[in-house]
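A favour between colleagues. Tell me how you read the following sequence-structure pair.

===
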Amino acid sequence: MQPSKEITIYDLAKALDISPATVSRGLKDHPAISHATKKRIQDAAREMGYRSNNFASNLRRQKTNTIGVMVHELNSSFITSVLSGIEKITTAAEYDIIIAHSSEDYKKEVANASNLFHKRVDGLITSLAYNTEKLDHFQPFIQKGIPLIFFDRVEPQYPGTKIVIDNFKAAHEITSHLIQQGCKRIVHIAGSLKRNVYSDRLKGYFKALTDHKIKPDETLVIENDLSEAASVEAAQKILAMNPLPDAVFVSNDFAAVVCMQTLKEKGIRIPQDMAFAGFNNDAIGRYAEPRLTTINYPGVKMGEIVASHMISHLNGQTNIMQTSTVIIKSELIARESSLKKGASKK
């Protein structure tokens, strides 16, 4: 079966025996067209299957009313909540979003950036991939004056708008919490230290140790990609340490739960033998046994703030390059996995 021909305003005009200009105005609810004529036009459009060509119209105006959103992964409750916040604001402002994800790969991020650029997005919101080192692939946006906002995983040297939490402060707080539970030999499992989120968390961890008169020990820092396999391997490295650590602070909740479960299977009691803390407040931490201590920062709010800054700029109300870093508040959520003082000794 052959697909039906796309209906145009000229087809509507011919069917209604009126001018194409009148049809166009009627579809746009122009006040110069009578209510009766508008109804005839809109009824005919619905019956004949007419679809407005917003894409062509927007191109004539040098605007597509679309915003590109490029994230490093999609299987994350944090990223999902950020996207929800972005979508809420952009929909209210009558913008569509095009979502691309790099799957933590720099080359895919470069390809996605090029694809979104050629789709003529009006702006780009992005969180960097695990192994991104250079930002050359964003230069076409900057050269064309297309607004660019980074969130969560950002390049600190980028002079434009960045939406983040204070990762240093949050890591300092969670490490201090572990120390207050009596822990002194604390392992930190970090993601790629090329990324601001993980390098800042490492700095906060070291500073908390120093502030509590505990000498930082770099042999207790494990850097990996925070995948399931890497988390199992990290647990094996921990088991090989002598003496064993009394706490583990992991840079995300998924990796923390995998590592914790692997250690439990080897007879390590959590938190009696080893306290545990993660980061991000993903759902997995709430259902782990014991429930995981973590850092919460509101993804929906971050998405709303990111999108609001973008819409504000697209409406000519702000200059993206004159807005630097926006810091969103985070909070420690202490659960059973780290509460050594209240834990049973059995």
